[in-house]
Specification:
GMP Synthetase, Chain A, domain 3, alpha/beta, single chain, AMP-dep_synth/lig_dom, nine-stranded mixed sheet, five-stranded antiparallel sheet, 32% helix, Acyl-CoA synthetase (AMP-forming)/AMP-acid ligase II, 539 residues, Rossmann fold, ligase, AMP-binding_CS, acid-thiol ligase activity, 3 domains
């Protein structure tokens, strides 16, 4: 039978290679779960769906934290022939209601608190629910091969479904950083193309232990914790619950990963956390802050992060200074990535150190990337423009939104403004909807942010556009003072840096201090919330 066997491409390949006993996941609740046990649990899950009357091709909403049971729900759905729709349990009810109405699931898998589960089931209109506790029990380290879901879910299970090219096999929702989450439809052939393309650009190894702070419910996390490591036969380290500097450091200390996939904001927090501690506290696992401070260049091989060989950064732009700190303190090999849910995973990737630190590098294998103007025409090297990507990983489209303008000119406009060099490498400028028109000049927020970050006492910042009392666009900078910094002193420092570092037309009209920047569930700055806040203050 023709078509793509997704389960076979992931776990089946490892069993065929004799690596069934190799650990696929290190899970806080289930312990170490082998590829063989993961494969068997997916088979039982598929049988459970069949026994519940779920038809092949149905969409299944998966609202769950990262766990091996969540992976079973995905693989089991693919085995059965149904379409998994992983969604973050942190989405507010209004967004969750929108997602349910948008994707119309025929069954749900919920791993959330009972009160939230009740609301979600009401949203889903009585769609059958899979028992998450039973799935977890099925993959516990001490479970026998036929336990927990019952013998009736083991016998007479056909082989994994094969997915025809160009049909929905996965729906992922965007983070909602610019509005309501959109359901992005992916085919099985897009998944295999991504594994071939990105897998050759950033190859993983069976001996790798991969830790991703991005959640499975979003494109970057799904690729980093499910698709790429399983295809490589690697081991994935999972964090259940809150992902912060403490939980990440604890996971690193316990499991000693070789690959860390995270976002710039988390890397910055980890670096600050590590650099505030002296090495004896870090090595023995004491969460108390040490008295000494170690420079990044003094990284020792026995540090908790000393086993890392590779760091991946994606989700938002990684400033050059931060990229340098990551390489100095964590891993010499840092891959700076740009991706889009609409392209399944990463489309541009560059090894920092192979050029300008923080540059995006080249298009991954199998992807064609060009820079285009507002009319869709390619622009010459050295000219800013809209990033357009084409290739087999580009989405089939949005759920319920045919003919969306993002999918045009034979590919996808990612919504990013970039600059291409003559050698074919790319630099990130900003998101296209963040580009500001100030005094007749197009200004990227990053140009202003880089000056603000260099000012004394600045912990973080973000620049957005707003309208002044005349309806003209102005820039507003939101600043988070560094720990212990005096707010008025920070404001003066930022103002002085802006006067010294920028021409008048680029300078923000306002400097506003916040305790923290608002972020989406993926950790990106929620620029739309800052713009709304600015609009409210100017009324």
């Amino acid at each position: 039978m023709s078509g793509t066997d997704l389960v076979g491409r992931l776990t089946g390949t490892q069993l065929a290679a004799g690596r069934g006993g190799h650990t696929a996941y290190a899970d806080p609740d289930a312990g170490e779960v082998s590829y063989a046990r993961l494969h068997a649990a997916a088979r039982r899950y598929a049988r459970a769906l069949d026994a519940s009357g779920v038809r092949a091709g149905s969409r299944g909403l998966i609202v769950a934290e990262d766990s091996v049971a969540t992976v079973v729900a995905v693989l089991g759905s693919w085995w059965h022939g149904s379409v998994p729709v992983p969604v973050s349990p942190l989405l507010p009810d209004a967004d969750m209601d929108h997602v349910v109405r948008d994707c119309a699931p025929r069954f749900v898998y919920l791993d959330v608190r009972a009160r939230r589960a009740g609301r979600l089931l009401r949203f889903a209109g009585g769609a059958p629910a899979v028992d998450a506790a039973a799935v977890l029990a099925a993959v516990r380290a001490d479970a026998g091969p036929h336990e927990t879901l019952g013998e009736e879910f083991v016998d007479d299970v056909p082989g994994p479904a094969r997915w025809p090219d160009g049909t929905d096999a996965l729906v992922q929702y965007t983070s909602g950083s610019t509005g309501a989450p959109k359901g992005v439809r992916h085919s099985a052939d897009a998944i295999t193309a991504m594994l071939a393309g990105f897998g050759s650009t950033v190859p993983l190894r069976p001996e790798d232990r991969v830790l991703a702070t991005a959640r499975m419910s979003f494109g970057y996390g799904f690729g980093s914790s499910v698709l790429c490591p399983l295809a490589a036969g690697a081991t994935v380290v999972l964090i259940r619950g809150a992902v912060d500097v403490h939980s990440v450091t604890a996971a690193v200390r316990r499991h000693r990963p070789t690959v860390l996939c995270s976002v710039p904001r988390m890397y910055a927090a980890l670096l600050d956390h590590v650099e505030r501690r002296d090495s004896p506290d870090l090595d023995r696992g004491d969460h108390r802050e040490g008295q000494g401070t170690r420079e990044p260049s003094e990284r020792r091989s026995d540090d908790a992060f000393g086993t890392l060989r590779l760091c991946l950064s994606a989700g938002e732009n990684c400033p050059p200074e931060l990229a340098g700190r990551i390489r100095a303190s964590f891993a010499p090999d840092l891959v700076n990535c740009l991706g889009a849910t609409e392209a399944l995973h990463v489309v541009l990737a560059g090894h920092a150190g192979g050029g300008a630190v923080g540059a995006l590098g080249h298009a991954v294998a199998g992807t064609t990337a060009t820079v285009r103007d507002e009319e869709g025409r390619e622009v010459s090297a050295g000219t800013r423009g809209r990033l357009h990507v084409a290739g087999p990983t580009v989405s089939l489209g949005y759920t319920g939104q045919p003919g969306t303008t993002a999918f045009a000119d034979g590919g996808l406009y990612t919504g990013d403004v970039v600059l291409r060099h003559p050698d074919g490498s790319f630099d990130y400028v900003c998101r296209s909807d963040d580009l500001l028109m100030l005094g007749g000049h197009k200004v990227a927020p990053g140009e202003i942010e880089s000056v603000v970050r260099a000012a004394d006492g600045v912990g973080d910042c973000a620049v957005v556009g707003s309208d002044d009392e005349h309806g003209l666009t102005v820039a507003v900078v939101y600043v988070v003072p560094a720990s212990g910094a005096e707010p008025d002193a920070v404001r003066r420092s930022v103002a002085a840096a802006l006067r010294a570092g920028l021409p008048a037309y680029k300078r923000p009209s306002g400097i506003r201090l916040l305790a923290e920047l608002p972020v989406t569930v993926t950790g990106k700055v929620a620029a739309h919330r800052l713009r709304a806040q600015s609009a409210t203050r100017t009324r």
